[in-house]
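fyi for ur records
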Amino acid sequence: MTQDWQFEVPITGSKHLPPDARYMEALSSQGYGFEVAIADLVDNSIDAGAKDVVIHFLRAGDRLVSLLVIDDGKGMTDEELDVAMTVGGRRDYGDRSLGMFGTGLKSASLSHASSVTVVTKTRRTRAVGRRWLMKRAVSGFQCDIVASAYAQALIDRYADRPIVWQGTVIRWDGVKNFPHYDHRGETDRYLHRTINRLGLHLGLHLHRFLAREDFNITIAVEDVDSGTEYMNFGVEPLDPFAYPVSGHPAYPRTFTAEFPSIGLVGLDAHIWPPKSTLDEYRAVGSVMDRQGFYFYHHDRLVQAGGWNNFRQPDQHLALARVAVDLPEGAVHIFRLTVKKDGVDTSPDFITALEYAKDEGGALFTDYMAEAEATYREARKRTGASRRPVIPPGRGVDPSVRETIEEELPLLPEEEPIAILWRSLDQGVFFEVDRDNRTIHLNQQYRAGILAGRRGGPNDAPMLKSLVYLLLHQVFEKEYSGSREKDNLQLWQSILVSAARAESERITDHG
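which gave:
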């Protein structure tokens, strides 16, 4: 049937369809990581002109009770607070604002807490507060008004640390990933892990702000029963381009990509020195994740690594990093995600990269080749040629996987080797499952090897690393000869004996 195509859809009218209250539940299920959510709150503090931001974990004895983000920014009036607590609330964003969509505070908070309370005060207005309680929000968008006396008391609690005349306090209660009970120091271990990851994330994504003399972020832990604040440290900037000496004498160098709709965009290309042990290099991500583009939105890092479909990650490009400050009015080419944890680029970006040049006429693709050559040359200088391997996978600590990927060439398109615990016969320490690319370790010896420590998916990193080094070649050959089989039996016997000795030590000291 042939019919003329209508380029515009005809309509007969319109009707108002407000969102269902369950929209709040959907808003809180956007996959915000914990560190990403906290960074989103700190963005609001920066937009408010804050000079000091405090991230405060509160505990009562062994139980974590609340998490607060406090700043000395300009605060909000009663009317401004209503807008801030409205989903998608429209407010005027400044030219350099980090906020964009009007959902960050609510979605970031309710992704991790059952309630979020915001108390705020300007220089000229009294303290006011609002609270979103998830169970009330999903039944009808009912936002609670905080009692004036409590709002002022919460502001006063943080007087001079950091609030002086004005500021804002965001309080999370019912934080979902707080330990529900303290088992053998689980709360302390949680705080250590979480604060370390949070400090690295904020240090990286806000490093340009933290490098300024007038901006600080502090992470602290306080016991509300005793009033003791036993952890308090400042977040340090983690600049992903802060190498002491460039890995290539011709870099850094700026290439220029041209777009018909927005003009020129600078690409600041860097080559890290090989085998760097600096946190600025290693703490950003795995060897595959940390290479590529580092996009900045108003000095805030919104993507740390990745090639955005320009090419696939490659071990030989591990030293390549490119800083790009996103231009204004270019959302059709660079689209920032709501969570500010990535940038979607259009095909126009890929095309522009192919023709991007520096002032001497060298192509951006030449930079890629030089970054790869720098990596390969560093390999040659070690004086050893290492055979490609199948990388480790599940069950092996990410830092160990990263080091192996960095030190050894990888066989392409091979499924990684998992190292997992399972029940085996007492006379067996490990079992090799070629079909499922897995090394199974005997669950019976796990407690002895961990020496009473709590187990986890990536536990016993030393043991698993040694097992991987012993056994990875088994998966890289079609079959095992008599010598390999004899070695397997030898290692089996020695490891069973060692594991039994470990178990006996635990029993003797029990």
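The first helix runs from residue 23 to 27. thats all i got for now
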